[in-house]
Amino acid sequence: MNALISPISVANPMMNEHQDPSSAELNLAKQYPTPPLEPVTSFAALKGRIRHHYELASEYYYSLWGEHLHHGYFLDAADTKERAQTRLVELLLDRARLEKGSNVLDVGCGMGGTSRYLAKHHGCNVTGVTISGKQVEMAVRLTMDEAGVDVTTNVAGDPIKLASGSARFLELDAEELSQHFPEPGTFDCVWISEAMSHLPEKKLFFQNAARLLTTNGKLVIADWFKAENLTLDQFEADIKPIEDGMLLPPLCTQTQYTQLGKEVGLQVFSESLDISSDVAKTWDISWSLIQSPALWAFAFSQGRDGIAFLQAFRAMRRGYANGAFRYAVMVFQKPVKD
């Protein structure tokens, strides 16, 4: 994992983000195959590895992909990855019909890209939470820079004004929301983009989200899924390498999320929309950006997690191409009590 923040772990400047993979790129993956799987001993251990991963890798992620740690929604051949990323946020806003000025809990906020967007462009007051203290530090710094305020003046957890909205950031395990926010009905919206797939106890998250939402509040989700009714061979070939390299507990199907929402009393506001074909380019770009032989060699020297992570980029592309790996957005609403 240390490979991801090594000084040599930088994108190859000769690679174009729209370039198809060359034989040299494929040779890198063959040269450094993922070592045998190390079974996860417990979900607590997996969570610790996730935290460690983001503590080490977040600066690298920022250099590779920018302020948004989520897929891009590519609708135009000329789209940059940055435009595609903000378009995904806009799609979620449109599907949720979120009112301007809403109080939003952004779960798994990363470096705060979405939190800042919602604050600046939609007037929301956003609380971003992440399991990584490093990401909180980066989110605060980037937000203070955007606000034009000296970062040394920030008190941990205080809102930072952006246009008509604000954003603040907290280090918090997403499965401990009820302890930190004891009052029900605190937020108009709980927003979770590509983070729930990392949570071992997904039903617990749905329960916490339902409790924290105001009446008519929205739970907005974008996430990774496995396709329905996969064979064992399909799972082993296309899903297992993704779960391994990306430090995921077992992936769910879209139907399972819908069922979990209903079980905790939420109503479907916006049906699951599968946009896999419009986001898959994300991993073509990402794969092209990690083609540094020095990066792969250093990742190999640091143990299996570094290589498994890089190989997962390739697995993501294969999963999308084969239809086994899916991406969807959906919105739930907390109904008025009878």
Spell out the key features of this protein:
alpha/beta, globular, 45% helix, 13 helices, single chain, 8 strands, 8-stranded mixed sheet
Describe this structure in words.
The chain is α/β, with parallel strands linked by helices. Helix content is 45%, strand content 17%. The protein is built from 13 helices and eight strands. The protein has an eight-stranded mixed sheet with strand order 3-4-2-1-5-6-8-7, with helices on both faces. β5, α7 and β6 form a beta-alpha-beta unit. α8 crosses α13 and α11 packs antiparallel against α13. The chain is globular, with a radius of gyration of 19 Å. The termini are far apart. The N terminus is likely disordered.
Task: Please summarize what this structure is.
The protein has 13 helices and eight strands.
